[in-house]
Specification:
Rossmann fold, OB fold (Dihydrolipoamide Acetyltransferase, E2P), 6-stranded mixed beta sheet, 5-stranded antiparallel beta sheet, 8 helices, 19 strands, binds adenosine-5'-diphosphate, binds magnesium ion, ATP hydrolysis activity, ABC transporter ATP-binding protein, ABC_transpr_MalK/UgpC-like, ATP-binding
């Protein structure tokens, strides 16, 4: 196992700069997830750690070694891809053994490692099958088995669950997390799915257009997003954003451009009249007699909770309530944002104010 350090790393394809100076420290044994929308540079960064893409600027360290010029097979990493990349003409056992055979490892050692990995992943009964005889989830497990057999310093995963259906994705998420708790191998995992990131990571790195927007523990990002991008990206359904102005004074409040006055606990000194974006998560509204008057637009019960789209002035807000809602579209309900859980962002820069 080893730490991974990414220092001011840049990448250009021809004259197009796609990674603009990224710094990430990954501790030995940590499970770090790079998350962000498609095209933000996650795979490129992962491929630079793997050595599959050269580094235009900065430094990548694995353990205490700078690996910029070290070829992939000497970096002691194992990568798992979205498309599994299994050899179709080889059995499960041979797919898993392949890298060790290439290295001329002794046969008993290969057998012992393959059988151990198969045990960890529940593949014992499938060792003689070919990839075409496996389900998507089983193939993904073989791809992980192949990585485990190599017992690398670092696991690199690039969207390994994207080809699986929703139910299997949830199951594999748990399996990968369990696997990490067991093996404690340093892991860098790329996904565009913020739920995967929230549920699996020790540390999340939110990327956007080739930069790091914020990095931290999942609940840190949820509780204190540094800017509008992270606030909108982390959490599902997304945070509601309302444009307007701060009204400071003894009892501060937020006056929405779309109509309505929302509660605020505190306002920074000198912020009266300041244009801001008021952020409130759907799950942070309550039904309350002293709440804001809102017109019901859509009610979506899921059983455990009810999602309601309601309008304050011309602003549509998504709210989630634990209780069941009998109100019909067009009727009025009273909803209260919890002022302790409100986020305020600078309207210009998008940076968090409070
Ligand atoms: N080989 C390449 N040549 C030119 N541009 C590339 C190449 N690979 C990736 N890119 C560009 O780099 C950016 C980041 O891509 P990528 O790392 O694949 O994003 P992600 O994995 O976050 O979806 C994209 O704009 C993509 O078009
Ligand atoms: Mg990608």
């Amino acid at each position: 196992m080893a730490s991974v350090e990414i220092r001011d790393v840049r990448k250009a394809f021809g004259s197009t700069q796609v990674i603009h100076g990224v710094n990430i420290e990954i501790e030995d044994g940590e499970f770090v997830i790079l998350v962000g929308p498609s095209g933000c540079g996650k795979s490129t960064l992962l491929r630079m750690i793997a050595g599959l893409e050269n580094i235009s600027g900065g430094e990548v360290r694995i353990g205490d070694r700078v690996v910029n010029d070290v070829p992939p097979k000497e970096r002691d990493i194992a990568m798992v891809f979205q498309n599994y990349a299994l050899y179709p003409h080889m059995t499960v056992a041979d797919n898993m053994a392949f890298s060790m055979k290439l290295r001329n490892a002794p046969k008993p050692e290969i057998e012992q490692r393959v059988s151990k990995a198969a045990g960890i992943l529940g593949l014992e009964k499938l060792l003689d099958r070919y990839p075409r005889q496996l389900s998507g989830g089983q193939r993904q497990r073989v791809a992980m088995g192949r990585a485990i057999v190599r017992d690398p310093q670092v696991f690199l995963f690039d969207e390994p669950l994207s080809n699986l259906d929703a139910k299997l994705r949830v199951q594999m998420r748990t399996e990968i997390k369990e696997l990490h708790q067991r093996l404690k191998t340093t892991t860098v995992y790329v996904t565009h799915d913020q739920i995967e990131a929230m549920t699996m990571a020790d540390k999340i790195v939110v990327m956007h257009d080739g930069i790091v927007e914020q990095m931290g523990a999942p609940l840190e990002l949820y509780d204190r997003p540094a800017n509008l991008f992270v606030a909108g990206f982390i959490g599902s359904p997304s945070m509601n954003f309302v444009k307007g102005k701060i009204r400071a004074g003894a009892q501060p409040s937020f006056e929405a451009d779309t109509g309505g006055v929302y509660p605020l606990n505190t306002a920074p000194a000198g912020s009266d009249g300041m244009p801001v974006v008021y952020g409130i998560r759907p799950e942070h509204f309550q039904l309350a007699d002293n709440g804001l008057s809102a017109e019901v637009v859509v009610v979506e019960p899921t059983g455990s909770e009810t999602q309601v789209v309601a309008k304050i002035g011309t602003q549509e807000l998504v709210c989630i309530f634990r209780e069941r809602i009998t109100a019909k579209p067009g009727e009025t309900i009273r909803i209260a944002p919890d002022p302790n859980l409100v986020h305020v962002f600078d309207a210009q820069s998008g940076a968090r104010i409070s």
